[in-house]
Design a protein that fits this description.
single chain, mainly beta, UDP N-Acetylglucosamine Acyltransferase, domain 1, 17 strands, 8% helix, 27% strand
């Protein structure tokens, strides 16, 4: 049997990020992005405060909280019960469930595992991968 559909080996950080982009761009039809490129998909159980900016394509899961002044940029995935504080900016990053991003933090091209905490005013740059329960203390840069 020869499979002719979408397939990608997600064994590297780059490929793992790519599969999320491919889904959000409609290259691979997977719910909730079944061909709906450029949209921000916000779960009915997510809480987005007034003044938060959500730029698609992106995904906010059940129980996610995005505080006023925070910005979720394109190709970001905010997992189940994640919390993004005031004025934090997340671009092209993936947060696994129960992670928290502090006020004024900046994440770009990062992956945070389960139960991670990125403190106030941290900067986490492209290529960073934080394992489960990692903590980046306030005002740190990776």
């Amino acid at each position: 049997y020869i499979y002719r559909g979408y397939w990608i080996d997600i064994g590297t950080r780059q490929k793992y990020m790519q599969v999320h982009r491919d889904i959000m761009d409609g290259r691979y039809l997977a719910p909730p992005f079944s061909g709906a490129a450029a949209m921000a998909w916000v779960s009915p159980g997510a809480k987005v405060e007034d003044g938060a900016i959500i730029e698609g394509p992106c995904f906010l899961d059940e129980g996610a909280t995005i505080k006023a002044g925070a910005r979720i940029g394109p190709y970001s995935v905010i997992g189940h019960h994640c919390h993004v504080d005031e004025r934090a900016e997340i671009d092209g990053s993936i947060l696994w469930p129960n992670s928290r991003v502090g006020a004024d933090a900046r994440l770009s091209g990062a992956i945070l595992g389960r139960h991670c905490h990125a403190g106030r005013s941290v900067t986490i740059g492209d290529g960073a991968v934080l394992g489960d329960k990692s903590v980046i203390t306030d005002y740190s840069t990776t």
